[in-house]
Amino acid sequence: MSFREVFGREPEVTASAPGRVNLLGEHTDYQGGFVLPTAIPQRATVSVGRSGGGEHRLHSANLHRTLTVPLGERGSDFARYVIGCIELLGVTDALDVYIDSDVPSGGLSSSAALEVGTLRALRELYGLGQDDVELALIGQRVEHEYVGVKSGIMDQMASSLADTEHMLFLDTRSLERRVYPFPAGAEVLVIDSGVPRTLAGSGYNERRAQVEEAARLLGVPELRDVTDVAAVEALQDDLLRRRARHVVLENARVLEALHADAGRFGELMNASHASLKDDYEVSHPKVDELVALLQADPRVYGARMTGAGFGGALVALVPQEEAVDIADGVLARYSGQGRRVVP
């Protein structure tokens, strides 16, 4: 169904934003670290029109659901993301909102794409002056204040600023950023494992609390300020030591990857997955299975989970023109259900 079929008229504005895949730099952005995402072709498209009533009507084409939220209330499910954007921009009108997204949920920032797409539509509708960085920061506030996920800034910045042709290097403390080409001769392969996950119901907020405690014990504002991993080994608590070790080494991997060839970049991805699996403990057996199948293919430079973890997607660096063949072979041997390549 279209906006017209749901609401009986045409929308006033339509905007969109892409999902993202993170190549390196996982679980570092809420410790002021470095990340290296790129946009994916899939996007969340948001159409909006003023309704003149006393409630918001929000329709998800993907979920085949329409939610009605009275003005002043936050609603539930996907409504929280949209209402957060509306309220944080100071919009007081009742709105009709139509969402059509092909960004897979789980690891590819479908929520950030929805937030940035909604914020872009509202910016256009009301002629607002926020730039793309300000929209990303508002999207992060939506996660914190309306969804209950204490996320870092990477997802919203990538959805707001990244493109599909480059890697976006982002310093999540200063928000300084540069674009880099992909390693020569390589392209990115993304696979959805078919394992669903939810951030708020997972260990995401727990992991954030653990690394904050590790930083406190090490006497630094954030683990970004630790550059010698030997300092981490002084932590007495084994759990905190492993969590902190991942963050410190992951930052180092991102910085090295900026000028690495495809072979070395892939090795860094493999090391990142091992760290996320063993030290940070945010992977999943089905994701590990897919990663192992990819890493066993001699053509694959490297592979790892991507996103917050506990299911979701994974990413691999592969030779150009070979992604489809590699993916077909791996998925034929994978025992999971609902998996698919994200083209």
UniProtKB/TrEMBL annotation:
The keyword ATP-binding applies. Residues 2-49 form the Galactokinase N-terminal domain. Residues 81-161 form the GHMP kinase N-terminal domain. Residues 256-334 form the GHMP kinase C-terminal domain. Keywords: ATP-binding, Carbohydrate metabolism, Galactose metabolism, Kinase, Nucleotide-binding, Plasmid, Transferase. InterPro entries: Galactokinase, GalKase_N, GHMP_kinase_C_dom, GHMP_kinase_C_sf, GHMP_kinase_N_dom, GHMP_knse_ATP-bd_CS, Mevalonate/galactokinase, Ribosomal_Su5_D2-typ_SF. Belongs to the GHMP kinase family. GalK subfamily. This is Galactokinase. It comes from Deinococcus aetherius. The lineage of its organism: Bacteria, Thermotogati, Deinococcota, Deinococci, Deinococcales.
